[in-house]
Specification:
This protein has a single domain, classed as Beta-lactamase. Helices cover about 35% and strands about 15% of the residues. It has a 5-stranded antiparallel sheet, sandwiched between helices. A two-stranded antiparallel ribbon has the order 3-4. Helix 4 packs across helix 14, helix 6 packs across helix 8 and helix 8 packs across helix 10. The two termini are about 35 Å apart.
């Protein structure tokens, strides 16, 4: 039996010192700040514009002159340089998309500045990609969504099991609790025990640092640090995704593999309805995670039922993982998920960028709204349409 053993408070303090919580002030300060941001992000929704800027703008208008463009708002906790609200559909090419899913995704996203990617996990087909500029770009820090890859690595290396509890910061928690509540110390500890080399190996195996798609114009591969981050080392890498650039497509591909039992497909994006009708899946590689998926799924389901993703809760079971952090004066809110029942399964990834209203729980709410809109149309109750792809066997492709 492989376990993380409970430790005494003294040994816990020593362990935190090894992680840099005590010995590395930068890691501790950043972790505390980000933890506070994560805990309070859902409660703060108002941008506070500086009084001087407002006064100058009103004065200019009152004098009959054209008011100067006011400076960017000063948002509490900021300043944030990315707007929270924008037209996220501008410039999208949608000729090969599933328009039912497209409409549900656009309506659920509403005015938020962000991206929604929906994938069929059984084939790797991208059904809709809202805000393609962001989805295909260079990526963003994954925040706590990186914990899925770390959990799978820890289980495969037998550093943890789903039952044993780890005591840190006065709490005793198992993997299910740690995933559901996105506990940073748990995953910082696990990552430090695994070490950078193993963490990096599994991250690359799961698709980090490479394009998730096949021949998708403009797609970028994101990036993965070649060494432990200077800010907090492996602990920050495995709890906040420090120095990683993750794309929505990469997270969608990994979640598709978790949803379908371990097949990592190349994501493909049809450019016309003819291409969609003749779609054929292509396998990138098989991941040996089939026996691990039942061990992480309770934590992913728990996130939605009683944890950080409760806004996504619906009549049918949904499994997911949130992420909230900030990068380069931009607040990020991630949620990656899949419906865990029904004749049709979907992977839904939401990424929001902007100011204080942006968070993982907010992204989860958008995904939940998307699932509900489709459920109201009986989308999940109907059988998936028969296509040429369902009549051929898939083989590992394109090495």
């Amino acid at each position: 039996m492989y376990r993380i053993f409970a430790v005494s408070p003294i040994r816990a303090t020593a362990l935190l010192a090894v992680l840099g919580v005590i010995g590395a002030p930068a890691w501790a300060a950043t972790a505390k700040r980000k933890h506070r941001r994560t805990a309070t992000a859902t409660a703060r929704h108002a941008a506070v514009v500086g009084r001087t800027a407002i006064a100058a703008h009103i004065a200019a208008a009152g004098n009959g002159s054209r008011p100067a463009t006011p400076p960017a708002p000063i948002i509490r906790g900021g300043p944030w340089t990315e707007p929270t609200y924008a037209d996220s559909t501008a410039g999208d090419f949608i000729d090969g998309e599933d328009l039912t899913i497209r409409k549900a995704a656009v309506d659920a996203l509403g005015p938020y500045n962000g991206s929604v990617v929906v994938v069929d996990p059984q084939t790797g087909r991208i059904l809709t990609m809202v805000n393609q500029r962001v989805a295909l770009g260079s990526g963003f820090q994954p925040c706590s969504t990186i914990k899925l890859a770390v959990a799978l690595a820890g289980l495969r290396e037998r550093m943890i099991d789903p039952v044993s509890k780890l005591r840190l910061a006065g709490l005793r928690m198992d993997l299910t609790y740690a995933l559901a509540h996105s506990n940073n110390y748990f995953f910082a500890t696990l990552g430090t025990r695994l070490g950078y080399e193993k963490v990096s190996y599994y991250a690359h195996l799961f698709g980090y640092g490479e394009r998730a798609g096949l021949n998708i114009n403009g797609e970028q591969p994101g990036s993965y640090p070649p060494a432990p981050p200077k800010n907090g080392g492996v602990g920050m890498l495995t709890s906040f995704g420090e120095e990683i650039q993750q794309t929505p497509l990469q997270l969608a591909a990994l979640l598709s593999a978790i949803a379908n039992g371990g097949t990592l497909y190349y994501l493909q994006y049809p450019r016309s309805q003819a291409e969609a009708r003749n779609f054929a899946p292509k396998v990138k590689r098989e991941l040996e995670i089939g026996d691990l998926i039942p061990l992480i799924k309770p934590g992913m389901r728990g996130a939605v039922e009683f944890g950080t993703a409760h806004r996504a809760r619906d009549d049918g079971p949904i499994a997911g993982k949130t992420g909230t952090c900030s990068e380069n004066h931009t607040h990020l809110g991630w949620f990656g998920s899949f419906n865990d029942i029904g004749n049709r399964k979907l992977v839904v990834v939401v990424l929001l960028t902007g100011g204080r209203p942006v968070s993982g729980p907010a992204a989860a709410g958008i995904a939940g709204d998307l699932y509900r809109r489709l459920n109201d149309q009986n989308y999940f109750a109907s059988n998936a349409p028969l296509t040429p792809a369902s009549l051929i066997s898939t083989q590992i492709c394109c090495k």
